[in-house]
Design goal:
It is a single chain. With about 190 residues, the chain is mainly beta. The protein has 2 domains: about 100 residues, no CATH class; about 30 residues, no CATH class. Helix content is about 10%, strand content about 30%. The chain has 3 helices and 12 strands; from the N terminus they run ββαββββββαβαβββ. An 8-stranded mixed sheet has the order 7-1-2-9-12-11-10-8. A two-stranded antiparallel sheet has the order 3-4. The longest helix is centred in the last third of the chain and has 7 residues. The N and C termini lie far apart (about 65 Å).
Length: about 190
């Protein structure tokens, strides 16, 4: 149970028909290493605020005063709910459901080398109230379980990998990096 009595979202993994339930806790650099901030002060010792200027340089736009929007070819505002994602061929794109909306069947595995071909964007620690010894035993087999992960319904899922240690299970998400072969060096 998370702070304030609110239950965290749970992922359900199925291996050989058996379900394993995990709460998801995102790990970030601030939690691991802490952080520092630079505080800018004016000549009176008061905190400076970041603002923007318009193109003419005559209008000060305070923080939060700039937003992003979409307009149609006639210059009219288009609500985000009216936008439709399409593939390059113009056909409507398919939504990838949230990974929290249904159990995730695990079966596909990759090698460590295939995992290393990915730029990892996020790391989550998976917590189980029932313990996860049996699940960790399943992870210790050959290869690393992989699946498509989507935190919320979206048009593009992330490649996900389950990595276990003796005491913890981690979910790594990222995108595959494409490497180009440049050539071998020849002695001259």
């Amino acid at each position: 149970m998370a702070k304030w009595g609110v239950m965290a979202k749970e992922l359900v993994f199925k291996i050989n028909g058996k379900g394993f339930f995990f709460a998801v806790v995102k790990l970030d650099r601030k939690k691991l290493y802490g952080w520092s901030e630079t505080l800018a002060l004016d000549e009176k010792g008061e905190k400076c605020e970041l603002v923007s200027m318009d193109a003419s340089g005559t209008i000060v736009i305070p923080k939060g005063g700039i937003g992003m929007g979409a307009i149609n070819s006639r210059g009219e505002w288009v609500n985000k709910s009216e936008l439709v994602a399409v593939y390059e061929d113009g056909k409507p794109a398919d939504l990838v459901p949230s990974s929290f909306s249904a159990p995730i069947e695990l079966g596909d595995r990759v090698t460590v080398e295939e995992l290393f071909d990915h730029e990892i964007k996020a790391v989550y620690q998976l917590d189980s109230k029932d313990g996860c010894e049996e699940f960790q035993k399943q992870l210790s087999g050959s290869g690393i379980y992989t699946f498509t992960f989507n935190y919320r319904e979206d048009y593009e899922g992330m490649n996900a990998f389950l990595v276990g240690t003796e005491h913890f299970v981690y979910l790594l998400t990222g995108q595959k990096m494409e490497f180009s072969f440049v050539g071998s060096m020849k002695r001259g």
